[in-house]
Specification:
Number of strands: 13
Distance between the termini: 45 Å
CATH architecture of the largest domain: 3-Layer(aba) Sandwich
Strand content: 15-25%
Number of domains: 3
Largest sheet: 5 strands, mixed
Helix content: 25-40%
Oligomer: single chain
Structural class: alpha/beta
Strand order of the largest sheet: 2-1-3-10-4
CATH class of the largest domain: Alpha Beta
Length: 312
């Protein structure tokens, strides 16, 4: 970065721009001498909409082009939804900041029905997430699930056109876009365990950028960052991604970190669940240990089957 200019690269979707503008405004308040500009990019994940995300490369497609801008020096920061960030960052990049986490839950959205339980048999539900599909099929095997891609506005439009009886979206995105009124019901983590990193915004930059990192660290929320590190450590040990149904959610209660996780089959017939608790300063180790617990109970064979067999 120059001494007077800071460039933030972001996807061009309305939600991504909202998140980037949030970071922009907070940094501008902290550093009024800086000219902070947004660099919008259409990523592969935004343009390859004809196939399920798992079949075209996973959520890494939403961040690859942004990270390339950082590495070549065309931008100084990238703002991400943490659930889109791959478990291993490219060499030379770091994630030093996680903002205070928004609601991590999934949301039930429908024109006619109040909640998941009130859907009639064989109702059509839209979601692109294998994690959601796995858990929904375990709860309501009678439902018809169909892949639903696109930004939040596109998904809501398809619901409003009558293409679906209900759709499942992240509550955080709806709240950030001022669409909380569209939520008919929140899906408690006991019912639908969230995605790794869901509800959190992260800031990525080049490693060793000594001038930049001190400028952005005031935006960091340590409890949120600790929980995200624990969840990502779990995912890394499970070699997880968008291609397999993995869920994990950590929170700090009364000074203790508690995390739950699951690995399942896409059809919902096999789901392994476990949990762990410990001191927040051991977040990464707790994430790894929880993964090991799941692996020891058969998650290794299930993951191998999912990753190397045909995608559902």
């Amino acid at each position: 970065m120059s001494s007077s200019r800071l460039r933030i690269v972001t996807r061009k979707s309305p939600l991504a721009l909202w998140q980037a503008r949030l970071v922009q405004s907070r940094l501008a308040a902290l550093h009024p001498h800086l000219a902070i500009e947004l660099v919008g990019v259409h990523t592969s994940g935004d343009t390859l909409l004809d196939a399920p995300l798992a079949k075209v490369g996973g959520k890494g497609l939403f961040v690859k082009e942004l990270e390339e801008r950082l590495l070549c020096g065309a931008a100084d920061l990238a703002v991400h939804s943490m659930k889109d960030v791959t478990v291993d960052l490219p060499a030379g990049l770091v994630l030093p900041v996680v903002l205070a986490r928004e609601d991590p839950r999934d949301a039930f959205v429908s024109q006619q029905y109040q909640d998941l339980q009130s859907l009639p048999r064989s109702a059509l539900v839209g979601t692109s997430s294998l994690r959601r599909q796995c858990q929904l099929r375990a709860i309501r095997p009678d439902l018809k699930l169909q892949s639903l891609r696109g930004n939040v506005g596109t998904r809501l439009r398809k619901l409003d056109e009558g293409q679906f009886d209900a759709i499942i979206l992240a509550a955080a995105g709806l709240k950030r876009l001022g669409l909380e009124a569209r939520i008919r019901a929140y899906l408690h983590p006991d019912l639908l365990l969230p995605a790794i990193g869901q509800g959190a915004i992260g800031i990525e930059c080049r490693e060793g950028d000594e001038d930049l990192i001190p400028l952005i660290t005031p935006l960091d929320d340590p409890p949120s960052r600790v929980c995200i590190h624990a969840e990502r450590a779990l995912n890394r040990r499970l070699f997880g991604g968008c291609q397999v149904p993995i869920a994990g959610h950590a929170k700090i209660l009364h000074g203790e970190l508690r995390m739950r996780a699951l690995v399942g089959s896409v059809d919902g017939r096999r789901i392994l669940r476990d949990e762990i608790c410990g001191q927040p300063e051991h977040a990464e180790e707790l994430g790894k240990r929880l993964a090991e617990k799941l692996l020891s109970r058969g998650a290794d064979a299930l993951l191998a089957e999912l990753q190397h067999g045909p995608l559902a």
